[in-house]
C-alpha cells in the first residue's frame, strides 16, 4: 500500500497564503495543514481549521517574525528590535553557544500552548525552515512532545538526486545536509515514542514545482506512508521573496489540476491526512 499525506505549511503566515491553502483543502488537494503560531492570520486560521475539523499540526517557528514569549524570557533568541534572528544568524549563534536552551524550551512551550488553547491537540508537528531537526533543537523538543502526548513529527529526509528532473548542486547539498540531521532526529524522537511517516518528499520540489515534476514524484512513490510538503498560495506581490515567488501560485495550480486525481487512482495511491495515521 502507498499512502500520501499532503501537508501545506505556513497556514496563517499571510492572508494570501491562507487563501491558497484553504482553496486546496476545499478541493481535497491538501489533506493536512501546518499552522504557524506567529503569522498575521494565525489565530483566525487556527479557529477556522478547528471549526472545519481540518487535520492540523503545529508549524514551530524560531527564526522569523515575532515571538510569543516576552523579550526578557527569551532574550538570546531575539535581536535588539525584539524579532527572531533569522535562520542563518540563529544557526550561527547556536554554533557559537550564544543560544540559551532554556529560552528555546520556553518559546517552544509557548507556541504549543497557543496551539492547544485555540485548536486543540495537533495531529503532528513540523517547523519553519525545519529547525526542529537541528541537533541542538531536537533534544529540547522531544521531551516536550512526549509529555504532551504528540504522536507524530515530520522527518524531512529525502533521497537525492530525484529521478526524472534535475535540481542544482547547491540544492542537492542542502537536502543532503538536512536529511542527515533529520535521520539523527528520527532516532531521537523514536526513543521518546514519537512516530513519523515512512518517507518524505517536497524538498527537491521546492522552487521546482510543476505538474510534470509532481508526476515524477508520484511515479516513484515508495511503499508505505509518505508526507508531501507543499507551499501553495495566492498572488502576493508585496510579500517577502518566498511569499511573492510565482512558485506559490504554481504549486496551487499544480495541486488543483484535475489530472492529479486520475494520477492517484491510476497509481493506486491512497491520499490521507496525518489524523488517519493514528
Q: What is the total number of structural domains?
A: 1
Main pleated-sheet profile: 7 strands, parallel
User: What would you report as the Rg, rounded to the nearest angstrom?
Assistant: 18 Å
CATH level 4 superfamily: Glycoside hydrolase/deacetylase
Classification by helices and strands = alpha/beta
Order of helices and strands: EHEHEHHEHHEHEHHHE
List the quaternary state of the chains: single chain
Round the mean pLDDT to the nearest integer and report it. Answer: 96
Through-space gap between termini: 16 Å
Which fold name corresponds to the CATH topology?
TIM Barrel
What's the shape? globular
- As residue ranges, the low-confidence spans are none
In the CATH hierarchy, what is the class?
Alpha Beta
Tell me what the CATH architecture is: Alpha-Beta Barrel
Q: Strand fraction band?
A: 5-15%
What is the strand tally?
7
How many H/I helical runs?
A: 10
Helical content (DSSP H or I, runs of 4+):
40-55%
Index terms:
TIM Barrel; 7-stranded parallel β-sheet; 10 helices
Describe the structure.
This protein is of the alpha/beta class. The chain has one domain (2-277): Glycoside hydrolase/deacetylase (TIM Barrel). It has helices spanning 15-27, 42-51, 87-95, 101-118, 138-147, 169-191, 211-219, 241-244, 247-256, 259-266, and strands at 2-11, 32-36, 56-60, 125-127, 199-201, 224-230, 269-272. Strands 1, 2, 3, 4, 5, 6 and 7 form a seven-stranded parallel β-sheet that branches. Strand 2, helix 2 and strand 3 (56-60) form a beta-alpha-beta unit. It is globular, with a radius of gyration of 18 Å.
Amino acid at each position: 500500500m502507498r499512502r500520501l499525506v499532503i501537508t501545506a505549511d505556513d497556514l496563517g503566515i499571510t492572508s494570501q497564503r491562507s487563501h491558497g491553502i484553504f482553496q486546496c483543502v476545499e478541493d481535497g488537494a491538501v489533506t493536512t495543514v501546518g499552522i504557524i503560531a506567529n503569522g498575521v492570520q494565525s489565530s483566525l486560521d487556527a479557529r477556522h481549521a478547528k471549526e472545519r475539523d481540518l487535520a492540523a499540526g503545529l508549524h514551530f517557528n524560531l527564526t522569523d517574525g515575532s515571538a510569543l514569549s516576552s523579550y526578557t524570557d527569551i532574550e538570546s533568541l531575539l535581536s535588539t528590535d525584539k524579532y527572531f534572528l533569522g535562520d542563518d544568524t540563529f544557526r550561527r549563534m547556536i554554533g557559537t553557544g550564544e543560544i540559551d536552551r532554556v529560552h528555546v524550551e520556553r518559546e517552544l512551550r509557548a507556541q504549543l500552548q497557543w496551539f492547544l488553547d485555540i485548536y486543540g491537540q495537533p495531529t503532528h508537528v513540523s517547523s519553519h525552515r525545519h529547525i526542529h531537526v537541528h541537533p541542538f533543537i531536537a533534544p529540547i523538543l522531544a521531551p516536550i512532545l512526549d509529555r504532551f502526548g504528540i504522536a507524530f513529527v515530520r522527518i524531512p529526509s529525502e533521497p537525492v538526486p530525484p529521478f526524472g528532473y534535475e535540481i542544482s548542486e547547491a540544492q542537492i547539498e542542502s537536502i543532503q545536509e538536512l536529511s542527515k540531521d533529520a535521520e539523527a532526529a528520527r532516532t531521537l524522537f523514536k526513543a521518546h515514542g514519537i512516530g513519523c511517516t515512512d518517507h518524505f518528499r517536497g524538498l527537491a520540489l521546492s522552487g521546482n514545482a510543476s505538474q510534470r515534476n509532481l508526476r515524477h514524484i508520484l511515479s516513484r512513490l515508495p511503499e508505505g506512508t509518505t508526507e508531501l510538503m507543499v507551499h501553495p498560495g495566492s498572488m502576493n506581490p508585496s510579500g517577502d521573496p518566498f511569499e511573492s515567488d510565482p512558485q506559490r501560485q504554481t504549486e496551487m495550480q499544480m495541486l488543483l489540476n484535475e489530472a492529479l486525481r486520475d494520477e492517484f487512482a491510476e497509481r493506486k495511491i491512497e491520499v490521507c491526512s496525518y489524523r488517519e495515521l493514528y
